Amino acid sequence: MSFLEVLYFIIPTSIAYAAPLILTAIGGVFSERSGVVNIGLEGLMVMGAFVGIVFNLAFVNVFGGWTPWIALLAAMLVAAIFSIMHAVASVSFRADQVVSGVAINMLGIAIALFSVKLMFGKGQTDFIQQKIPRINVPILQDIPIIGPMFFKSLYGTSVLAIAIAFIAWFVIYKTPFGLRLRSVGEHPMAADTMGINVSKIRYTAVIISGGLAGIGGAIYSQTMTGDFGHATINGQGFMALAAMIFGKWHPIGALGAALFFGFAQTLAISAGSIDIDFIQKIPAVYFHILPYVLTILALAGFIGKANAPKANGVPYIKGSR
Amino acid sequence: MSNRVISLLVPVISIILGLLVGAIVMLFSGYDPVNGYIALWNGIFGDSYAIGETIRQISPYILAGLAVAFAFRTGLFNIGVEGQLMVGWFTAVYVGAAFELPMIIHLPITLLAAAAAGALWGFVPGLLKATLRVHEVIVTIMMNYVALHVVNALIKTVSGGNYKTEKIQPTASLRSDFLSNLTDYSTLHYGIFVALAMVVVMWFILEKTKTGFELKSVGFNENASQYAGMNVKKNIILSMVISGAFAGLAGAMEGLGTFGSMTSQGGFTGIGFDGIAVALLGANTPLGVIFGASLFGSLKYGANNMPNAANIPLEIVSIVVALIIFFVASGYIIRVGLQRLNKKKEAK
User: Fold this and answer.
1) Which residues of B touch A283 (CB under 8 A)?
2) pTM across the whole model
């Protein structure tokens, strides 16, 4: 492959891998901006991936080509409902949010696998017939260089993910809800004094994070694997968490970080087949650990200071100071 | 009810609630919960073989629980036990296979190497927390994934492209013919004694040494400790290192006792994450950890009997375990409930 051909392969694949991360990371941004740590993103993604596949298998004859898209909605709904557990624990029950998140992760995979065994009598589901289709954008795909990179064999879900990143930016920074969200995450007592319902905002934020992580998981399972088993979502949720931190709790930052992590994942799986001496010589393990190492470095302040919302992880107790 | 009783009741109620919801789930998915729990019980205590295997399963849980509990006691949250366990497992197997030494030297060196590997994996988040105030939760999660990929790559390297390392030398093995014969040829090994010894070690460090006092003090109030002349940074790092060493030994249980080698891992073992639950249930005390580990070890091993004996997917136990963690985390509401109940009684 020539250098350009390599780019034509790597860039679309990177964006495809990034899409689930973008959505899930944005979900994380909502939750943590409101002051609720959400380690449970992985479990919420698992839930989404599982529901996406099951819905797709069940309704493919009803909805035909639209099935994967409606499956995304179903996954969003179920994961959003599932995330209420985390909201109840962290907001109302004043639980340690990290522990509750760990429980959500374990519960997500346990419920999904239990249901799979119940429904299919084996450890993984059947393969879906209707994956999320790749499209070629007319006219735009003919632009030299840029066309094949960004507009050929493109997933509609990638466009959706990028669009949601910008919508999230608008919501968080340009709307009254966003202002409330951020104030609750920075200084809940001040927000409460101003008449903002802290619990309500935090519940909403966690449920949004659940919905987005659900879509993220369903995109992953319906584009990458095509079935659901115990290893379908293996660390994607944590990688999204990393993207959120790497992007400094900002939607556009998270978008950029997720795109970069998608790139790293693509290199890791395709390093062997890319005919560039330099890349072939690097063992794949370095690409595998790259996102995680970078996140540690970002947190350590080597790549700009990352500041979490001030009240992140602290349950708000009315009347206490 | 005194506060002490309530603190004891919270985990007990959490376990009951977890089992109860588990039963409801079974009922709704068309299984018989009574059969299910009988199968679970028999899987744990059914015969001497099952008991042997259950105790074998408890050993790594004790150590993983100690690792989490030790960090907790000093104000740190070590979610990295999983990764520390993996590097400990690999190091144990590597040192166990690579050298030929008499057992009296080989086995201790191998155990120490595993502990050191885990300690090293704990050192990184400890150092970052102490010097740069980076939150240890995220760093340890990231270190888990680094461990997973690095260990898999190392297994491939040392085995010459295979997915499994060599078997360890018998001189580094924790296997025990005596314990095995005693329990109808189960894979029960001497690891349980290593684990119990470490329970004593943790108790001794925390309760009987100056270091332990400083560690707890820093966890309780950093500023006051600093003012009292303690080296806060050193104590944070030390805490993560000791915690990591316990986790590394948990890996050695798997490497030197149960498996004798290490296979390329498709995902996490789960022991490290369950260690969080073990520590929580045990209220982060050494003795409590034995209790928590016994419960989780039993549930995990006994679950294997559920598909055969009652035709119920063993994941039901994972659901129960996750729910128990959830309920323990939500202990606040259980406390409130208990206190209300208490007041009503007193009013009568």
Assistant:
1) 153
2) 0.89
